[in-house]
Amino acid sequence: MRRPTLFAALLAATACTTPDVSPGIKDARSLLADTAKGMRKDLETPARAEFLAAQNALVQQRRPVVRTAGPCAVAAARIEGISTAGCQLVEFADPTGGPVNASQVLAAMDALDDYWTVLAALADAGSRAEIDVLTKGLLDGIAGLANDQPSEALAHLAGRVTERRDLIQKVAGGVLDQHRYRALRRAVVRADPIIGAQTKLIASYYEQRSGNALDASDALTDASNRMEAARTQGTPAQYRAAIADYRRAFAAMKKAEARSPVNRLFALRQMHAALRDQLQSPSLDDYLTSVEQVREIIALTAK
Amino acid sequence: MTDTKKTRNQAFGQIHSVSTSAINAIMRLQALAEDARVAGDDDRSTALILKANEISAETSRIYRAKSRMRARASLRPLVGGLRTIASDAQDSLRQMKKAARAIQAATEFVGILKRLTLLVA
User: Fold this and answer.
1) Is the ipTM of this complex over 0.95?
2) A105/B75 touch (CB, cutoff 8 Å), yes or no
3) Helices B42-70, A213-233: inter-axial angle, 10-degree rounding
4) In whole numbers, what is the pLDDT of chain A averaged over residues?
5) Which of A3, A47, B11, B15 is the most buried (most CB within 10 A)?
6) Do B114 and A131 touch (CB under 8 A)?
């Protein structure tokens, strides 16, 4: 098989195997934003208390608590014509030490937000379209060199580019897609166990707080046992009271679950695992291998 | 099949997976309890529910102990790890944008080359 035909065959075989991960990432970001909003509202007060406790510890130890950093001396800045916009207040109290607390959970949600934002940017198919447009522009420019009585060398270059134009355009985009998917896969595979561990730890934090869903679930189990006992051994009045108790315990459990972000965090974790599976699929491996093979063939052809 | 029976069957038929996890055992017992109730055997139905409750309580006890131990750990190393990964991914994104700018620069260079050849011709 001639090389140009082999290129076309390889590219045709791989053209449909790149998974579009953008919709999954978009859904995950939407869930994360919604979950984080509720968590920030819920944890604002305990996080503030943790900060004040950390500040108080520094005060007791007579250690620095707060200072400015950057160009805060207005007169000196004006003399040099420097903006004072960079002046900031730096707090030395660190409430994120020790076992998991509200401040750590909020920091974890910020880190998760940054992480998913970068994934979304990497997965954005717009960047492939952008490369296609730019490559087309370059190829048009080179092909156009042949039009104005150029040197023999430029005419030869223009001729070769025109001959392989479609292929070059596909490969340029394909090579960048390869880079993009490798970067995505690398990030997601590395992050997956971290996100799993993080989710469990945040769940544990919520389970130590009062009014948590675990307590409500245990209360429901107890109410169920009492109701079944009342059915077989109690009077009708006792049975009716136990039924009412059971209904109240069920409502309390549903309310506690609705308040808790844990179910949503586990759903987010599942979405990340699904993304990992998508990016580790054998068909994506084939795609990445095929693009490597195309690069090798191009290198051979160029000689 | 009536809608109520169908909905009830769906509710009691939710097996999480084919694994032998506690949640599957509990839900299986609930489904069997429902079968017994429908068949008119209320005592057997109650016995199965009480068994499900026993597993639920025991699982909760074990889970709480693990949760209390886990809550002694810090999120900080995990947060640090995630930030490093995000930063590396950001570098890859910057490289892609750089590639786009390189193609742009090459296009401009070809334009310059074209003007030069016209001057020389």
Assistant:
1) no
2) yes
3) 160
4) 84
5) A47
6) no
